[in-house]
Amino acid sequence: MADIVDEVRHVAELGLGGAWWAERHTADALTAATVAGLAVPGLPLGTAVVTTYPRHPLTLASQALSVQAAIGNRLALGIGPGHRQRVESVYGLRFDRPARHTREYLGVLVPLLHGETVEFNGEMYQVAGQTYTPDALPPSVLLAALGPVMLRIAGELADGTVAVWTGPRTVETHVAPRITAAAEAAGKPAPRIVVNLPIAVTDDADQARAWVSAHFGGAGLVPSYRALFDREGVRGPAEVVVVGDEHEVGQQLHRYADAGATEFIAVPFGSREQIDRTLAFLAHVNREVGPGSPSEA
Fold this sequence. Notes:
Elements: H1 2-14, E1 19-21, H2 29-39, E2 45-51, H3 57-71, E3 75-80, H4 84-89, H5 98-113, E4 118-121, E5 126-129, E6 140-144, H6 148-157, E7 160-164, H7 168-185, E8 192-201, H8 205-216, H9 223-232, E9 242-244, H10 246-259, E10 263-268, H11 272-289, E11 295-296
Parallel strand pairs: 1-2, 2-3, 3-6, 6-7, 7-8, 8-9, 8-10, 10-11
Antiparallel strand pairs: 4-5
């Protein structure tokens, strides 16, 4: 965990907008956020994302509120059902009706996060309980949503979405209009639309894209991602990552903002020199445009 603290301190010193963690085998995202939050005050923190199937919503609500209390209410809770292959082969669970699962999950989780007593009798969840954590405010809940049904659920029941492997055309024509319409119909505020992508400030964009193809090319075989790439009109992940020199990357980030993205989770990659150059530029952008701008994952 020492490396997590060092990285987050560096992010805070640079002046970036926050730090986010994906769910990985090496570290639990919410535990990482807690450790970082206790060591580094003030910086917004988030998960992108925690998989729902292996966690009961009552358990996740209790954990998330405990993190909120520990770090001074700076958490954005990104969640998602995950993918069939991982849920079934790694966790040994049935990836059964993910949209229904997600709707019921949020129907339990969100009221619990707001301190309400839940009496829920659904097709997949039957929950009776409450969780109370002194000094904890309900975190913003973001749903990983790619298809039309999940975007509608995100707009109705969550505070926004985290979109991965999503190009600006897809954000503008698919993600933003669908989730915004759902939020408006539900009488909710404008949703957060958080784009999560690898990024590299570099003079060799072709090499950077080749690196992404080598390390993340398999994303093109995941059905939900494949649908995004087809919608964007690209062949795979290397064609939606944000790469180029400072001017080119700045233009791409502005394109996402114009398309409707409210925040950008930047995942720097490549050599240490390339990562440092990327972070320095993102810090500059963050100072120029203020809160809600690129964050480092």
